[in-house]
């Protein structure tokens, strides 16, 4: 096989498996393509298209004390790179001690019918309708005395997974994000909106610009408020950021060992406890319309919530919380065995539903006095035992009085636990697809309602815009 020959992804997977001399082998070929637009001051600045391939080889070696694993990933892999890559993974496995998460490699999963098909690719054509509409939004913003900044990105990844146990699986994952900032010419006022999309056909720049213009109008009146606890409306994007962090902190083993907010006092986990008096359900589903993700496990490395031995494991819908009651924590096959809990792998989307039908505007109209947040930023963990998080508000916090927004207030640093927020929330609005601003580089497939928190802790004033 010549390095000058264009090797198809399924062929490179098959060849790597043929080269393997280990007791077990998993090969993951990720074919990536991306297209992007960037703009500043109501004008496009850059655009581009990229393509690439990453190959991951996972070798497993059986020994008297257990099974070891070695993982090596490389990009821009050619045919001549294959054997050295496979041998490097095998050497890593033979040099490692027994893997704590060792399990038999997954088998018996039907092959994907399109495993041998060419990878899906995105191009700049994905912006064919979006770009002209964005240009029209630039003109309206210019006429209205505001400046638009931001970027749009579309990625398409085709993942090919093959194993020595016979698995041949493939998934195409689209991932699009739009972030749009509107600023006043003197830069003293700023508003943000973001969207997640599969194909940019459901994104309306005119509607986003109209919303941002409304918020900049609210900010023409400035009100200074001290730190304190305020009734606060958290929009879907902020709720998503908080609950995604909660999901990342929901490893069953950590909870069973008494190290997290999901640990039960006296031992065990809090599964079965009521986390919210509202009938809210937090769930994940690889087949959720518009939020689909791979229906099988893809793990490039082992960690608290993933295991390379679980590659190819079928994924199904999971209720993490059902009508306010904690139902599942994240488990690999290994941690499920340790804790006695059912297998519940880390998901690729997160949905909170079971709230009401009110839109965020309708929730504002029902507010006597409180704060309306735009988004959260720079979220960091303070205390894992309570999942206390800290972070900042950004790009607009507004004062609501008698059902109307009456002005913009200063930004704040907050200190809150998402688990506590669920227990204190007094209202949830209508669930809608949203882009989590803080975690949009890692997790984009989310649908959340707005939440009303009667006593959100704005712990100190922040002077950021």
Describe what you observe in this structure.
The protein has 9 helices and 20 strands. The chain has 465 residues and is an alpha+beta fold. The chain folds into 2 domains: 9-215, PmbA/TldD fold; 221-465, no CATH class. The strands form 3 sheets. The chain has a 6-stranded antiparallel sheet with strand order 3-2-1-4-5-6. The longest helix has 14 residues, at 130-143. It starts with 8 loop residues before the first helix and ends with a strand.
Q: Quick gist of this model?
A:
This protein is an alpha+beta fold.
Q: Give the radius of gyration.
A: 24 Å
| Number of domain units | 2
Number of strands: 20
The DSSP helix count reads 9
Mean pLDDT over the full residue set? 96
SSE order:
HEEEHHEEEHEEHHEEEHEHEEEEHEEEE
Bulk shape: globular
Strand order of the largest sheet: 3-2-1-4-5-6
* Spatial separation of the terminal alpha carbons: 57 Å
**In terms of per-residue confidence, which ranges show pLDDT below 50 for 5 or more consecutive residues?**
1-5
Largest β sheet strand count, sense and barrel closure: 6 strands, antiparallel
Q: Approximately what portion of the residues adopt beta-strand conformation?
A: 35-45%
Q: Could you estimate the helical fraction of the residues in percent?
A: 10-25%
The SS-based structural class is alpha+beta
Domain Metalloprotease TldD/E C-terminal: 228-459
Domain Metalloprotease TldD/E central: 127-217
Region (Disordered): 94-114
Pfam family, one: PmbA_TldD_2nd
